[in-house]
Fold this protein.
Amino acid sequence: LRDEVTKDLVLEGGALVLADNGICCIDEFDKMDENDRTSIHEVMEQQTVSIAKGGITTTLNARTAVLAAANPVYGRYNRRMSPEDNINLPAALFSRFDLMFLILDEPDPDNDMALARHVAYVHRNLEPPPAAFDAFSADFMRGYISAARRVTPVMTADLVQMVSEIYVEMRKAYRTSRNQTFTSPRTLLSMLRLALALARLRFSPTVSRHDVEEAVRLMRACRSSIENVDLPDQRSRDPNDDIFHIIRDHAEKLNTETVLYKEILALALQRNFTEEQVKACLKEYTQLNIFSLSSDGARIKFAN
């Protein structure tokens, strides 16, 4: 820009530069012009913005997280098209996001009524309705996030091996399934960043196995929201049936009637189930005399 007093060319930081060491929230991400897309490529890859205009050549820091929202090209999401085609963004830009979730506006009487009441309440009272919980203050959240960022957790050798094996399995699933989204080395970096972030939330100097499992669960959950064509049917299925199939398939793969609980739990977590759901499945099928558990609960055996 040109200074109004001196008429000299000056730099003025944009949203990404001003959000250095913070978070940049972008709405209507699909409507960015080509120049902005070129800039955000560099920001999400190198955390910098390079400028060479008006005799000014410099590089500005843009160490920021990007939270973006985009709309489908034709107003409604077409499940038969890929996310890149629906939102009309290049695949290279999509791959730079660690997590992507598909949020569909589907008719639901309960959700529609809750939304209508919320909007009507705000319109009438000019303030949001009272929350059912006590929220943390903004000052507390700033202090908490600032303290968490100062933590630098490390990963042990066994967890590095675990993440590597999970990445190889994801690559294998991509090769054998047409519905899998592309898995690249950036996917591996995303898992590592998520695991480190989860450790920072606990102010832990080391990354735990649970952090890695939760990072994988988040990755699979976001992929599931994009890849699953028939989401209503997926939601209506009994998780106990799906977990039973996990146990049965794992036993058939090992050609044994006894499997380890920790192995089943790891497989279930990778497929976006919780430990409570695994325990509920084992309880139900044990009562049906299909499974039997060891005294310490470490082994699961199919009943004869």
Residues 157-176 form the longest helix (20 residues). The first strand starts at residue 23 and ends at 26.
